[in-house]
Amino acid sequence: MSSGEYDIVIVGGGAAGLMAAAVAAGKKCRVALLEKNTECGRKMLITGKGRCNITNSRKWEDFKSHIYPDSNFFRPSFMAFSNDDTVEFLNSMGLKTVEERGMRVFPLSGRSSDVRDALVSHIHRGGNVSLFTGTEVLSVNPRPKGGFDITALFLGNRMRAGHIAARCVIIATGGLSYPLTGSTGDGYRFASRLGHSIVSTQPSLTALIPYNYNFGLIGLTLRNVSLSLEVDGGVVQQEFGELSFTKGGIEGALGFRVSRKAVHALVAGSKVSVVIDLKPALQEQVLRDRIQREYRKDVKLSRYLERLLPLQAVKPFMDSDPSLSVNNLPVKLKHWRFDVKDYVDYSRAVVTSGGVSLKEISRKTMESKVVPGLYFAGEVMDLDGDTGGYNLQIAFSTAAAAVNAAMASGR
């Protein structure tokens, strides 16, 4: 690989890195994208269960409630490159999209690889972006007179170390989630060595593991239920939608939505529980009246429950409370409690909570307030969102902000 002087070097070829390179493609700047895997966008390929939930089409007033820990930080980059802009940009590359339930946007083909490939093809067509895979960045160091010296390990047929000079650097290395895709926290190390603070990281959008987990629940999906998260006996979050039980524990859209607060509470040593309302559309008294009308004493309670619950849920529901009876059934149906003992680690967490402190990054340009010419994009920052397309939009918007600012800096 020739070294030379690049205007911009993007470290990381995931969603944020690819979008940064795609925005720069065809512009009057020399750009290098360095990805340590042998292909870019490996984590993108598994998002949305292999379908890639590109974004969510909600307007900002609704969108912002799904961003943590500070939606105000994200607002300028979203306004400059919104969910509508993301869809329009991808459509311009020939990628057709479709909006589905929950205002989630997917590629029409249903294939994550088509999103990645559209971005990569667009980058190649631009002619000004050099895309290097199998290139592991070891260090990023400021030069005395401005710019950066990047030391990298080139993992080709003959492994060798080399140096790359850059006017600006964008760190888009992702977090710690799904480490098999290459997310191993490299960006935190680079940022820390350059003087940045790292907010404590934890898995988010991950499975919650109940005490005495009933494996008979595995494979069950509950739709149109309500889920409450309790911390130290008080309700801190309520959600409505779909819940799944997997080998990992409680997942699905509802499980993921409450997992961020649940993990933080567990780490802090608090008592955490989730409570499922299996009949949220019915008030307890209405449900009680219905049961009194329908239930016959000559029918086993388990048989009657088959009318109220999915068949797979009946036995675990009964096993969860030996005192269950027709008298307390209305209460139990609306308060199926699971005390949570743990959570699944980064190996299967969708995103990382925590990262490079937002206090040290310009919210308009994503430029470091510590090191001029250094930018951040995507999950490496202390910025994450709910499941449903929000995290990819964070990656896309912040990447566009970073690369546009870097191109305009003239540094």
Structure description:
The chain has 411 residues and is an alpha+beta fold. The chain has 2 domains: 5-203 and 352-409, FAD/NAD(P)-binding domain (3-Layer(bba) Sandwich); 208-343, no CATH class. The chain has 12 helices and 20 strands. Strands 1, 2, 7, 8, 9, 10 and 19 form a 7-stranded mixed sheet that branches. Strands 12-17-16-13-14-15 form a 6-stranded antiparallel sheet. Helix 1 packs parallel to helix 5, helix 1 (15-24) packs across helix 12 and helix 3 packs across helix 12 (390-409). The longest helix has 20 residues, at 390-409. The two termini are 24 Å apart.
What would you say about this model in short?
Helix content is 30%, strand content 28%. It has helices at 15-24, 60-63, 71-80, 83-92, 112-126, 186-193, 252-267, 284-294, 301-305, 311-319, 329-333, 390-409, and strands at residues 5-11, 31-35, 55-56, 67-68, 97-100, 104-107, 129-133, 135-142, 148-154, 160-171, 198-204, 208-210, 221-231, 234-245, 250-251, 272-277, 336-343, 351-356, 374-376, 384-385. Strands 1, 2, 7, 8, 9, 10 and 19 form a seven-stranded mixed beta sheet that branches. Strands 12-17-16-13-14-15 form a six-stranded antiparallel beta sheet. A three-stranded antiparallel beta sheet has the order 3-6-5.
